[in-house]
Amino acid sequence: MKRFSLPSVSLACLLVLFSTERAPAQAAPPPATERAPIAGRTLTLDECIAIALEAQPRIQATLSDYAAARYRVNQALSPLLPQLSGLVSATRSQSNLTVTSQTTGQTLQIPSSRQLSDTFLAQVLLSQLLFDFGKNLAATEAARKLAEVAVEDVELQRQLISLAVKEAYTNILFAGRLIRVQEQAVQRAELNLRSAKGFFEVGTRPKSDVARAEVDVANARVDLIRARNALRTARVALNTAMAIEVDTPTAIQDNLVFEAVNLDRGQLRGEALRSRPEYRQSKLRVNAAEATERQTFRNFFPDISGTGSYGGSQPQLTESWTLGLSLSWSLFDGGNRVAKYQEAKANLEGARQRVKSTELDIIQNVEQAEIAVEEAQERIQAAQALVASAQENFRLAQGRFDAGVGTILELTDAQLALTQAQNTEAQALADYRIALARLDRAVGRR
Q: Is the pLDDT of residue 141 over 60?
């Protein structure tokens, strides 16, 4: 039976229009444009993010989830609109009627049969809910809020994909920086090996210096292999985040440079609470829980419906119609409605507490991201000073070894310290870029 609340018609329609027109503007994907070829050109970070946001199937999946949530709004609204159905029936039956004669006392079996044409019935049935104390309107409101939660899921996925692209992009640059550092380390180690062999051949250095230099060359080559594999792994992660073939030879623009930023903690917290989709979702779930609680409370009240039918039946196809008004009120259902109402109240309280919990989590995320950015800035400055000192120390050790007054151990230690310092600087730069990306995510930016 279809239900409809006359005082709620205009408001319900406005709710549906709001849920089906405003929200898609937030969730709709950008217009499809022909993608430029990726191979053979250098991509910027913004281009990589744009490619990922356009092609990532996870975003398309959340868009489909949002479309399904919109249809659930229509489902919740449908009881408020008229119900029209058709009924056609025909039966065939045969039975024996037992008759006892009063004069003779004999019992006779008289066959009786009815054909399909004798029992044919065709009707059109119409029903309309006239008043339900706002039950279905509350259900529609709850469904609309949950559809808006689905909209925020779309934005959440976009932010997570953007963060994944930024991290993979930075890891590629970091791996490339490590490759250059290790290549330089291999060159220095090979130069030291040639020097050690030359000194050994003229008898000024022992064979142990040559063996130590050979070990340094082998270690440097192993580290270079690891750096190259790290680059391949990072490129696979970036290609996967952009939803392209994993073996695409992606080339990206180097942005692994230090640019100091000043952080305003109060401003970042406010921006996070405004922009994080998780926080907006928690508030929308409270609204949905409130609507559900209103619906379950109004289930204690009756429904008033109007019904009508029109049709005809055989054998003369007699025309018939009916009109009716009914009041339906469940007086006792074993406590089911009471339990549902109590459940809705508990869910509402839980949703309100989750808003507070989400707010605390967001503030913690912002604070942790700020600390990570500040730490990375300090590490970069310390690492740059360390590289300068290590370069000078290696220069002096190289000179002492070439002059014959230094040992191979001293030179090896200086070379290792320089390589480690350069790795530390590259790591600090990469951590700084990733910390900035995570700060953007913490405050709700893409």
A: yes
